[in-house]
Amino acid sequence: MTKRDWLSLAFFLVLSLGGGLFIGATNLPGAWYAGLEKPAFTPPDWLFAPAWTILYVLIGIAGWRIWRARAAETPGAGAAMAAWAAQMALNLSWSPVVFTVHSLATGLAIIIALLLAIVAFIGRGAPVDRLAAALFVPYAAWVAFATALNAGLLFLN
Q1: Triad 94, 153, 110: Cα angle to 5°
Q2: CB 3.0–4.6 Å: which of 4, 56, 113, 135 could bond 20 by disulfide?
Q3: pLDDT tens sequence across 113-133
Q4: pLDDT per residue over 32-86, tens digit each?
């Protein structure tokens, strides 16, 4: 890999992992979330940080791989990159809406849109870079679970 490749990978990791950690650290669940009635399938609180850390690394690598394909003018890479950017914007907006604004309904709308953007990335990314698309599969599974969790919180509260 060239120096440019390493720098661009670092950029994507800072964007995804750094952005996710910053949003998470500045929009903590707090007492409001602790006081909500939770669905029976709610995982322990300690699981969220390591799960999201791993996912943000995968998201960053996938975005970087598609960006490289776009730079090489690979057909379809632009559409995949647009889906990556959309999912990133939606991902980073969920925590402030839910944990700071305390809107579970708006959070549910965002996370459904996020799941659709993730699926769009997988579909658009697979013909461009199969590994980049595959890196989003655990993310899709986690966000599908998180969507059910968000829906359960809204229903119970």
Answers
A1: 25
A2: 56
A3: 999 999 999 999 999 999 999
A4: 999 999 999 999 999 999 999 999 999 999 999 999 999 889 999 999 999 999 9
Compute the Cα dihedral for 31, 38, 107, 157 and give only its sign.
negative
CB 99 within 8 A of CB 48: no
List, in sequence order, the alpha helices (H) in 14-136.
19-26, 30-34, 48-71, 77-95, 104-125, 130-135
Query: Is the overall model pTM greater than 0.70, yes or no?
Result: yes
Distance (Å, rounded) from C-alpha 141 to C-alpha 138? Answer: 5
Q: Cβ distance 119 to 140 under 8 Å?
A: yes
